[in-house]
Amino acid sequence: MLVQFSRALNLAAALVAACLLAPVSSAQTPAPAKPATTAPATSKKPSATSSKPKPKPGPSSTKKKKKPAKPVPPPPPPPPPAVELIGLIVMPADVMRAGPPSGQFDGEGRRAAAPRFDAQPVQGVSSIKPGTTAGAWWALSDNGFGGKWNSSDYRLCIYLFDLRPRTEAGGDSRNALQAVIELSDPAKFFPWRLADENSPERLLTGIDADPESLVTMPDDSFWIGDEFGPWMLHFSADGELLAPPVELPDSVRSADHPLVITHTDIPRLAHSRGLEAMDLAGDSRTLVSILEGTVGGDAADTLRVQRYDTAAAKWTGPTLIYVLDPDTSSVTDMSLVEGNRFVVLERDNFQGDLARAKRVYSIDLDRAVPGKPLQKKLVIDLLAIGNARGLALTAPGAPFRFPYLTTESIQVLDRKHVVLVNDNNYPATGGRGANVKDATEWIWLELANPL
Q1: CATH number of the domain encompassing residue 272
Q2: Non-local CB neighbours of 131 within 8 Å, separated by 6+ positions
Q3: How far apart are CA 415 and CA 392, in angstroms?
Q4: 343 vs 365: CA distance, rounded Å
Q5: Is 71 contained in some domain?
Q6: Which of 209, 252, 288, 387 lies 20 to 30 angstroms, CA to CA, from 267?
Q7: First and final CA of the chain: distance in angstroms?
Q8: In the chain, which residues have pLDDT < 70?
């Protein structure tokens, strides 16, 4: 019995030892995991059991590279509003008025042996205003012969014309000079020496001031915007200076200001970039002006719009900003529509066939935001004027162009009619031909879209 029990114990021990020495089955213990590797997507191949069909060889299986998108050009500007030529007067270039000989000085102020002209030319219309009777027009003459130093024998003045435009092909027109008001300073308000300093009348000449904008006041006096200062000059109905010149705010002075010429101050405006545009607001007391050029330190192609209260004798309100078009160089006039709405004449620096930008915009100061440009709306393209009445000598069907270098005067008659005039810078040429003296053209326009 004991022998049998001992044998059983030995057999069980042998079985246990056999189990401990046997290898472990892979089904019981997983093999160590290999590091995961991700093949590129392009290296993957569809399996044989995939339900997706294999792509067929050919152009459709080749992935084309996307071409860069072409820049989309901006839409073309809308066509200019329709405008029709309904009246025309052409003043010949060589018209003279009574007065002393003129044109004896060159651009450096040197006196020639004899004057070029026996009298005073009727020329250089730089601003216009309707007179008090039908057909009557005030016209401001500029400083004479285009510069400060060559115009000391040209007498500054305001003309009064009687004008009846030609309104149909072949019709007659009337162009008569009724009066001349010569500008003077007998009370000695002008603080700098004049060319005619020693005469009792102290007549102003083209070396003293450069008149560019004209405003007629309810009391029959005149306000004139000048470029040499620039100054605002107030004259009586007889042309006498009523007060000292009004300087611009912030001591903005041009290269032609007496203090700059004598090196007492530095210029912040270039030559001939002063008070070119000015008119009276609807309140009949506020003069609104736009400088022709950019003030030094201001952003390029921006012009200052400023207001002067004639009753309070002070500049008022914030300075506003007018921005020139990329293809223009200056603003040359403005005219009241109503309230604080105006039209503005903007132009390039070319003439004749080379002229590309002679435009009229409308602006509304009531919608102005200080520090931001005034909004502009194109109302007239002066290089695309209809001529259905045949008033201008153009090719049949061709538009009438007003391509003068100095398109400087505009006057609103009502919301559908305006009058414009060029400054002919006598005896300059080029507006209607390289060797043709520029005439003074007055044009009456009718707008299809009211202002």
Answers
A1: 2.115.10
A2: 137, 138, 160
A3: 24
A4: 11
A5: no
A6: 288
A7: 136
A8: 1-78, 169-171
Per DSSP, the three-state class of 259 is helix
pLDDT for 28 equals 38
In the three-class reduction of DSSP (H, G, I as helix; E, B as strand; rest coil), residue 42 is classed as helix
pLDDT at 274: 95
Element (DSSP H or E) covering residue 446: strand 440-447
For the chain, what is the domain count? 1
Beta-carbon contacts of 345 under 8 Å, excluding residues fewer than 6 positions away, are: 277, 331, 332, 333, 334, 359, 360, 407, 408, 409, 410, 420
Please give the structure tokens belonging to residue 48. Answer: 């044989």
Distance between alpha carbon 66 and the CA centroid of its chain, in Å? 43
Q: Count Cβ atoms below 10 Å from residue 378 Cβ, excluding itself.
A: 16
DSSP 88-152: EEEE-TT-EESSS-B--B-TT-PBPSS-SBSSEE---EEEEEE-SSTTEEEEEE-SSSSSSTT-T
**What DSSP line would sit under 406-441, residue for residue?**
TEEEEEEEETTEEEEEE--TTT-B-SS-TTSB--EE
pLDDT tens digits, 374-391: 999 999 999 999 999 889
pLDDT in tens, 57-89: 444 444 555 565 666 666 666 677 899 999 999
Residue 233 sits in which domain range? 83-447
Q: What is the dihedral of CA 327, 330, 332, 333, to 10 degrees?
A: 80
What residues form DSSP beta bridges with 97? 120
CA distance 203 to 201: 5
Residue 33 resides in a domain: no
> Contact 155/120 with Cβ under 8 angstroms?
yes
In whole angstroms, what is the distance from residue 383 CA to residue 350 CA?
12
Are 203 and 220 within 8 A, CB to CB? no
CB-count burial class (<10 Å; 0-12, 13-18, 19+) for 439: buried
336 within a domain of the structure (yes/no): yes
- The residue type found at 317 is G
d(CA 18, CA 363): 109
Q: Which helix (H) or strand (E) holds 3?
A: helix 2-21
Residue 45 located in a structural domain = no
Q: Are the beta carbons of 368 and 382 closer than 8 angstroms?
A: no
* CB-CB neighbours of 314 under 10 Å: 11
Measured distance CA(241)–CA(233) in Å, rounded: 7
What pLDDT is attached to residue 1?
40
Find the helix or strand (DSSP H, E) in which 280 lies.
Answer: strand 277-280
Closest of 148, 150, 269, 287 to residue 214, by C-alpha? 287
